[in-house]
Structure prediction request, 599 residues.
Amino acid sequence: MAETSTPSQGTPPEGESRRDFLLYAASAVGVAGTALAVWPLIHSMNPAADTLALSSTEVDLSAVAEGQAITVTWRGKPVFIRHRTAAEIEAARNVNLAELRDPETDEKRAQKPEWLILVGICTHLGCIPMGQKPGDPKGEYGGWFCPCHGSVYDTSGRIRKGPAPLNLAVPTYTFLTDTSVRIG
Amino acid sequence: MSGQQFDNKIVQWIDDRLPVFSILKHSAVDYPTPKNLSYWWNFGSLAGVVLVIMLATGIFLAMAYAANTGLAFGAVEHIMRDVNYGWLLRYLHMNGASFFFICVYIHIFRGLYYGSYKAPRELLWAIGLVIYLVMMGTAFMGYVLPWGQMSFWGATVITNLFSAIPVVGDYIVTLLWGGFSVDNPTLNRFFALHYLLPFVILGLVGLHMVALHTTKSNNPLGIDAKGPQDTIPFHPYYTVKDLVGIGVFLLVYLAVVFFAPNFFGEPDNYVPANPLVTPPHIVPEWYFLPFYAILRAIPDKLGGVVAMFGAIIILFFLPWIDSSKVRSAKFRPIFKQVFWIFLIDCLILGYCGSQPPEGDIVVVGRIATAVYFLFFPTLWVLGKVEKPRPLPHSISAPVLKGGAAGHAAQPMEKA
Prediction:
């Protein structure tokens, strides 16, 4: 006992390891407790209940003629709805999947071939691609062109050129009737 | 009593209990400073002055601002038109950000040229880089607050950078936004952080000063001060020199504030934010342009983000990458040229970042990015092969020539 540096009153030699154990246990509880206490702070930054509860959006499609496109808002994001022409559907379906960066068939991306519904946010850094209005540049594949960093999407909203890694996302949607759809 | 002795009894009474006067005297009056500092050494204190201006104007701007997507744009216009001197506060603050970066960039490149990052000042350099990073975060979030088109889309593009992180990227972006897009929760937290971070910078500046006063200032010769004959007290010699610099700086800064307040700005930011329309050409503020160019130079989302952050992170390792023991470029003929190439390359990157990514700009941006990263291995090789010119024996020696024979025969610097 004389060789222990800390004075102890009648502690048996194994008292050292017991003291170590207490130190490690207390430190572990302290670290875990701090981590648990920090979580509410971090989680408070995640979407609040009212943000999460944002309802779905219903859209009436009867006024959208063939070849036209409309943009609606869903969860603060633009959603592109394009009434595709037969030529556009044809172009989207006659693509060799092997040459796509993010291979997906057009059949999987559109429940009804004439209605293409996409989240209108470039998968690169979140800009809104152009191609919804008649005068907009649509890119060389007739779909959309993102002006920020030059990504080009085809008539199925699939990435064909530029830095974006993925196709334009397809939101979950249900056709309520032939001319109305609920997004979300 | 270990403290200083002061003539004034009240000062002495306070100092015995709380040594504020001792600390002040030690670090701002008696502080031994190399006597050969040039005007390039003014920019550290200038950056400090701008920080104070930013804090002062920012606190009063916050009193008239509202961090709400429905109110923010109008609140800024209210500040500009209705608040007494609101236009002055806002223009000082808005241009202050640009001048803060001008001072800091000159300060950083001065450190590069004179080897101020080398031993024993590695941590001084690292703290400076942390200040720079926090400054960039603060400036970015401040630019979001007016809630114009560039605010909104800049925020969208920059926060989306984090979505490039594998697996957790999307969760991080949602966490940053507090929703599914940049929206009211985002604006609110950016305001909170924009108010907090300048005080973090203030604390870091304190650490920067402690590190500086431990290792002492570098100087244009890059050799250590050998004794009292090589230094002069900070006050009055450098307080006066810093004041001259502040005078000149204020002339330039206020000329911009009064006569070209929107010189550094983007007209698009006077259009209220619209989440459904992206401006045709999104550019960040000028001080981010070189990094924006690096981001776009890599034709891969994750790769671009890694390169952009890597361009800053690599600077932390500079003290160990540079293998030369000689600090100042004055005595390194090849490094001097490499330095200017690097500086020009950064300007070229800045230009590329300001242009739409089309045609030749893409190629130039890629070459400039390669040159940026090649600078670092070049420094390592250069330290091995370059033959530096002979260093003077002391800071006084080149000035006094033969006159200082008494103490010029000292050994070369230790470091």
